[in-house]
Amino acid sequence: VQDTVLTWGGFDHTLGIRALGVKLIRKNGATLAFIPQISVHFSAKALLHGRLAPTSLEVIGGKAHIVRNEDGHFDIGLVDQGGSSSPDLVDLVVDDLARTDDSGVSAYLTHVALTDAELTVVDRKSGAIWQVPRATVVLSREAGGVRADASLNVRLGDRLARLTAAGDYVLAQKAAHLHITFVNLEPALFADVAPVFAELKAVRLPLSGTVGFAVAADGHVGNIDFNLTGGIGTLDLRPRVDMPPLDFHGLAASGHVADDFAGVTLDRLTFDLGDARGEAHGRIDLPSGGVGL
């Protein structure tokens, strides 16, 4: 630790410590993580019983790697000064928050936050690499698991897209349920992230709304639902479909995606093409040989 500051906000607040330049070291001397700044608040109740037990932990300005492996499992770790990532610390924190027993100092821990952090998200299944120059993630203990709230600035080409996310990790199921909210996000910006998103270059109109999904213990993604509205833009299906681009003046769609990604069910679709308006519902099948409506 390079420096420490003792903090106290009065009788309505708990005792806290803010530390700068924190290096976490394993018993064998290896560096577990380097944290530029960390803030810890302690339980007054535990102090009265002679125990030093943190109630909240905030990591400020760190770097983290999130990796989705080929088998679907996730590894999350803080990055040390040498650029290496270790998932041990993050796993330990999540396990402590998810514990249901009331023994030990970890029973007092209710909130963990990663503030103004820089994230790199690597999806080895799709080949995508996402850069998040600024992110804030808050983990909170709740009955039966852990709740997560996040604010992310994701780099897409020369633009930054603002996303907010909220979700719950259910301990009994070892599964997470997430909802992502965005405003004026253009799908075409994803086309250069990875080949799997190349087809999205056809969608050049801003979308706002939410997308929800579940992540199972084995990393499988399912239960995908969406509720979207679109602004002025174009949909260009060439060369797959021989027709001129469609100029949209407005769009609204809601529905869900099949777990095997074999189709999309549209519960509601309304669109405004300027000189024509329409509404529809149905299913879009996505077999390997083509698209069926």
- Low-confidence blocks of residues: none
**Major sheet summary line:** 17 strands, mixed
Query: How much is the radius of gyration in Å?
Result: 23 Å
**Total beta-strand segments:** 20
Shape type = elongated
Distance between the termini: 61 Å
Helix content: under 10%
**Which strand-content bin applies to the residues?**
over 45%
Q: Look at the helices and sheets and give the structural class.
A: mainly beta
What's the number of helices? 2
Mean pLDDT: 83
Write down the secondary-structure element order: EEEHEEEEHEEEEEEEEEEEEE
Q: What does this entry show, briefly?
A:
This protein is mainly beta and 293 residues long. Helices cover 5% and strands 57% of the residues. The chain has two helices and 20 strands.
Question: Which keywords apply here?
Answer:
17-stranded mixed beta sheet; 293 residues; 2 helices; single chain; three-stranded antiparallel beta sheet; mainly beta; 5% helix
Characterization of this structure:
This protein is mainly beta and 293 residues long. Helices cover 5% and strands 57% of the residues. The protein is built from two helices and 20 strands. It has helices at residues 44-48, 88-98; strands at residues 3-8, 15-25, 31-42, 54-60, 63-68, 74-79, 85-86, 111-123, 128-142, 145-156, 159-170, 175-185, 203-204, 207-215, 221-230, 233-235, 246-248, 250-257, 263-272, 277-285. The strands form two sheets. It has a 17-stranded mixed sheet that branches. It has a three-stranded antiparallel sheet with strand order 13-16-17, with no helix packed on it. The radius of gyration is 23 Å and the shape is elongated. It starts with a strand and ends in an 8-residue tail after the last strand.
